[in-house]
Specification:
Strand order of the largest sheet: 1-2
Number of strands: 2
Distance between the termini: 34 Å
Oligomer: single chain
Largest sheet: 2 strands, antiparallel
Number of domains: 3
Number of helices: 6
Length: about 130
């Protein structure tokens, strides 16, 4: 967003005077030129551009995780790297209802029959009750 024009908050701005200059270059060229001029700048990247970014690839930012239901995929990693405290994904996020037996049985002490009753009554579910996005 170009902030070179002074306007009151909430008012429409005129055409950005930076636009003709930025259109001459690629996104990375604009960032490089701004940084060379001492201006803190970084690109706004799409998800695909993030995965293809050479800097993030070189840092090992992406982690792979294997899920039996979905296969092996790359996921965003941690934004920082600590020398004495390595961070990482050690297991995938649980599937819907995957830990019911552990949480309700082992941690809360419910019997298998009590857990089955809760499931039969619709209190516990093994899948979302409505499709995602509805």
């Amino acid at each position: 967003m170009c902030r070179s024009r002074t306007t009151s908050p909430g008012t429409a701005r005129g055409p950005c005077p930076c636009r003709p200059w930025t259109r001459q270059y690629t996104k990375s060229e604009v960032v490089q030129r701004l940084q060379e001029g001492g201006i803190a700048a970084g690109p706004v990247l799409s998800a695909k551009e993030l995965f293809d970014d050479p800097h993030l690839q070189a840092r090992g930012f992406f982690e792979t995780c294997d899920r039996p239901q979905a296969g092996t995929h790359a996921y965003y990693g941690r934004p920082m790297q600590l020398s004495k405290t390595p961070l990482g994904t050690y297991r995938p996020a649980p599937c819907f209802g995957e830990h019911h037996a552990y949480v309700f049985g082992e941690l809360l002490g419910l019997s298998t029959h009590e857990i089955q009753t809760l499931s039969a009554e619709g209190i516990l579910a093994e899948r979302p009750l409505t499709p995602m996005g509805e």
